[in-house]
Amino acid sequence: MPVNLNPPVAAQLLPVAGVSLGVAEAGIKRENRKDLLVMQLCDGARVAGVFTKNRFCAAPVTVAKEHLAAGAGIRALLVNTGNANAGTGEQGLQDARSTCAALAGVLGCQAEQILPFSTGVIMEPLPVAKIAAGLPAAVTNLVADNWFDAAHAIMTTDIVAKAVSKQVVIDGVTVTITGISKGSGMIHPNMATMLGYIATDAAIAQAPLQAMVSAAANRSFNCITVDGDTSTNDALMLIATGQAGMPEITGASGSAYETMLAAITEVATVLAQAIVRDGEGATKFITIKIEGGRDEDECKRIGYAIAHSPLVKTAFFASDPNLGRILAAIGYAGVDDLDVAALRLYLDDVLVAENGGRAASYREEDGQRVMQQSDITIRVVLNRGAVDATLWSCDFSYDYVKINASYRS
Amino acid sequence: MPVNLNPPVAAQLLPVAGVSLGVAEAGIKRENRKDLLVMQLCDGARVAGVFTKNRFCAAPVTVAKEHLAAGAGIRALLVNTGNANAGTGEQGLQDARSTCAALAGVLGCQAEQILPFSTGVIMEPLPVAKIAAGLPAAVTNLVADNWFDAAHAIMTTDIVAKAVSKQVVIDGVTVTITGISKGSGMIHPNMATMLGYIATDAAIAQAPLQAMVSAAANRSFNCITVDGDTSTNDALMLIATGQAGMPEITGASGSAYETMLAAITEVATVLAQAIVRDGEGATKFITIKIEGGRDEDECKRIGYAIAHSPLVKTAFFASDPNLGRILAAIGYAGVDDLDVAALRLYLDDVLVAENGGRAASYREEDGQRVMQQSDITIRVVLNRGAVDATLWSCDFSYDYVKINASYRS
């Protein structure tokens, strides 16, 4: 079950002027399930995004990048679940282009003004005809106040839909941000694709919009992990419609830019953390803070070694303060000159290790108390620099874990 | 259950002249269980080893390296299970030295002529008194023909003991090699420490002995993975007693050296593969061959990405040819200029993917047939160089996997 994650409330999701959303049941993988989303954008809306770095990136990722680069102005995003159109070679590219052309025909625009996204099973041909047949229904119900349905239409094995809204005031103008995401991670049977769509009615030029989505992703979606598997289809898109009536943000600096970046990062962080909280089988949400590193790379390296260690994750599921496993993960993170005697390890407020071993003040009952919580922070103070990094992860559960969990009992 | 792994047969384990072994029940973690091994070496025996690269390496690793470097001649190895003496700081080092001193006292040698090894739970103080109290019993039953008991005495959560013997003829002299190992990997609740001890009565000088153990480890223990967690205590030791009556191998080249290296590598490979076959919950033994890479680093990088992917591992447990997951793992292995359209993916003899997608000749029933086997080879032909690498891994099983397994059905 999701860890401290409430489903979105439809009434709390705010429309974003210039964005209308329509969903449909196209029967892509199963019948009677919303599996198609069309997001139509007003004229002049700008779109920027970050995509998976997987070399086997899916066909829609390739096509979306091409269409963004074409610069013809994006008029709609098309998202299907049930099929990732990944590992599909040349045919996959043709199929992704065909779905764009089909939607362009319905909306009366050019195919390169459509961005395609797919999530689901990979190495299976995309059912283009089913998608094309579903488009009229999705377009017919395009409305602005439809983020709730949109969040549901992009789910695959997610248990809880992920959506959030926020408003900020920029230059005296109230600006609205609404975002949705999907994904859940390793324990799920799909590619664990993470998709995120954040729209705002703020006016932001293309260059700062791209800088903003990259920076926000770097502090949100790029800081979560369930399993370390990087999907072929991951994408985070940021849409700025310019309908709020504020002066355009023209550069990647200044107070308006910083205010917007902070708000977008906050929305992205909520959406990204929700993916971890919905990691199937997750029973613990784990925040990993690495402090006092020399650079971000070594902080993230150590953080990910902890986050990806099956031994650490199973200990957390078992609520077993077998915390030496964290030391071991720090030790093999690949920071070659790391002085293990200089670092301190905390579990929430409890000092666990220092001087290369268990802290003299540490009592098993304190570790046990923190391990019972569903939200836990692991803090590693490296004492070798001034850089910090924060990651979010979850535990491993299920019967296979019980064997791990019984070792110390 | 272990995958195609037979327990050792006592009568097939050959004594190695110059090595005698004694075991005892010291009650380190549990009563009534062999948990202490003493391997006494004849005068003039040489020992070389490779150790974990974990920065949080255990105290016995540090002490064993010091004692090897001291060059006083190693007279015995002392192995305990039930406690890893890792993450124990300064006290752990003192404790490791104390156990060496205790055994030196019993055997009448110097403490730095003893190499200590520990495996088991970490961040708990080593019960030095129990170990010291168990030593006389172990020393009393020191005999050459005791490899079977020795293999059992170093087990932690291993289901099957791991031991093998081999003989080769060098310069007309029959030389004996016997080795034992322990370890099992992530699904096990301990640190998954891998320990390996290989002894031969061949005469080998120190420098070629060190070259030999490094080379053999690189093609055996360094090519297996269950979970990617590198233990604080891993060690592989190679002992050459020189009792066979052959001319000493004095350099790391020539036919005698190459013959010995091949035999040692073969023994090490059997012992290393046995660790994977005994990975708890493993139902499939997976050989991963990466061919046609530019260098070993990129071959191993891609191989480990496949081997560590929980999504790939769960697909194998489910016998589900959801083989796009392998493509995805190849794609995120970090080989930035990889041309995915140029590579070919095979499952045993079945061509699965080429030209960036599923091969036209691929039939689901062929993939399904191979996936039913308990020994499976994944072969990736990169077509970008002349270097190959082979790794061995296993699947993930248990209920948590059932959820993964049901996605495509």
SSE blueprint:
The structure is a homodimer.
Chain A: E1 19-24, E2 36-41, E3 46-51, H1 59-70, E4 76-83, H2 89-107, E5 114-121, H3 128-140, H4 147-153, E6 162-170, E7 173-182, E8 195-200, H5 206-218, E9 235-240, H6 255-277, E10 285-293, H7 296-308, H8 310-317, H9 324-331, E11 344-347, E12 350-354, E13 357-358, H10 364-371, E14 375-381, E15 387-394, H11 399-405
Parallel strand pairs in A: 4-5, 8-9, 10-14
Antiparallel strand pairs in A: 1-2, 2-4, 3-9, 6-7, 7-8, 10-15, 11-12, 11-14, 12-13
Helix pairs in contact in A: 1-2, 2-3, 5-6, 7-9, 8-11
Question: Can you characterise this structure?
Answer:
The structure is a homodimer of 409-residue chains. In chain A, α2 runs parallel beside α3 and α7 (296-308) packs across α9. Chain A has helices spanning 59-70, 89-107, 128-140, 147-153, 206-218, 255-277, 296-308, 310-317, 324-331, 364-371, 399-405, and strands at residues 19-24, 36-41, 46-51, 76-83, 114-121, 162-170, 173-182, 195-200, 235-240, 285-293, 344-347, 350-354, 357-358, 375-381, 387-394. A six-stranded mixed sheet of chain A has the order 13-12-11-14-10-15. A five-stranded mixed sheet of chain A has the order 3-9-8-7-6, with helices on both faces. Chain A starts with 18 loop residues before the first strand and ends with a helix. In chain A, 60% of the residues are buried. The first copy, chain A, is built from eleven helices and 15 strands. Chain A is α+β, with helices and mostly antiparallel strands and 409 residues long. Chain A folds into two domains: 10-277, L-amino peptidase D-ALA esterase/amidase (4-Layer Sandwich); 285-405, Ubiquitin-like (UB roll) (Roll), CATH 3.10.20. Helices cover 32% and strands 24% of the residues of chain A. At the A-B interface, α2, α8, α9, β13 and α11 of A face α2, α8, α9, β13 and α11 of B.
